[in-house]
Amino acid sequence: MRLLLQILRGHWITLAIVGLYFWAYTADPGKTGQALASGLKVFVSALPIIIAVFGLVGLTQTWISRERVSQMVGQESGWGGLLLAMLCGTILLGPAYIIFPLLMSLHQQGARWAVIATVLAAYTVKIPMIPLEVLFLGWKFSLVRGVLTLLLAIPMGLLLEKLMIRKTQP
User: Fold this and answer.
1) 118 lies in which domain range?
2) Could you read off the pLDDT tens digit of each residue along the chain, which spans 170 residues?
3) What's the domain count of the chain?
4) Which of 30, 44, 88, 115 could cysteine-pair with 73, CB 3.0–4.6 Å?
5) Measured distance CA(54)–CA(122) in Å, rounded
6) Domain presence at residue 160
7) Could you tell me if residue 10 is inside a domain?
8) Inside any domain, residue 9
9) Domain for residue 25, yes or no?
10) 66-69 long-range Cβ contacts below 8 angstroms, 24+ apart
């Protein structure tokens, strides 16, 4: 029974979606079929990227030692690790489902929580996307948003790390 509860807790999102599909099927089977087909199409189109990400995570865990990760972005990396995280966040491209597993893998290898949060915050700036942002939203908006995001990325990362460490300590 305990194992079943652990499995249910670990897959609650999937179970909730299955439940929603059952509910939707009772409301309108035709639209539910269309929704399943649409979801399957998106899943199939994302599958090569997901496989590549898992391959990248495997390479990262195998080829980059825990010591190297700790040196570059672990507790002993200090401000240099946080600045590196901010830089990496701004040059990373692609959807979030690529970034999340990669960052979790780095955390498991010794990257500190502040680095993970800083990468994610800086990830919203995306240097290669700035011209597109300027085109639609203007220079002033893009400049202010980018500068504020980067100025707050490291403090937010440090705060999140403090909260995560407090949460895991007895």
Assistant:
1) 31-168
2) 777 777 777 788 888 899 999 999 999 999 999 999 999 998 898 888 888 878 878 887 788 777 888 888 888 888 999 999 999 999 887 777 788 888 998 898 899 999 999 999 999 998 888 899 999 999 999 999 999 999 999 999 999 999 998 766 66
3) 1
4) 115
5) 23
6) yes
7) no
8) no
9) no
10) 66/109, 66/110, 67/110, 69/106, 69/109, 69/110, 69/111
